[in-house]
Amino acid sequence: MQIGGPGPKHHPAFTHKIVHNYQSLSKMFKLAGFEVHLLEYCDEEGVFHENEWHGKDGVIFRSKKYDPRNNGEKLLFPSLIIDAWKRKR
Question: By C-alpha distance, which of 86, 83, 77 is closest to 22?
């Protein structure tokens, strides 16, 4: 993933202005008063991590679990998926 998207100017991702990672999004949510649980993400070395989550809580189609492009041995389209909920005061 990169600023400006992965391809030519007509590519839908061309308008991307910032690329977030699990650390930047987690920090942003925590500063806004949310609890954060990482569901799927890649670390600094590009290693994919996933924590258990269930589709009954909400199916995320662009995920390792539900994206048919990720069937097989190699993960082709990893996503950054974070579950965040507001802390009780």
Answer: 83
- Distance between CA atoms of 41 and 20, rounded to whole angstroms? 11
Residues 18-24 have a mean pLDDT of: 88
Distances from the Cα of 32 to the Cα of 26, 27, 87, angstroms:
10, 9, 10
DSSP summary character for residue 69:
G
Evaluate if residue 1 carries a pLDDT over 60.
no
Going from N- to C-terminal start, the domains of the chain cover 19-86
79 within 8 A of 61, measured Cβ to Cβ: no
Alpha helices for the chain (secondary structure H) = 22-31
3-state secondary structure of 48: strand
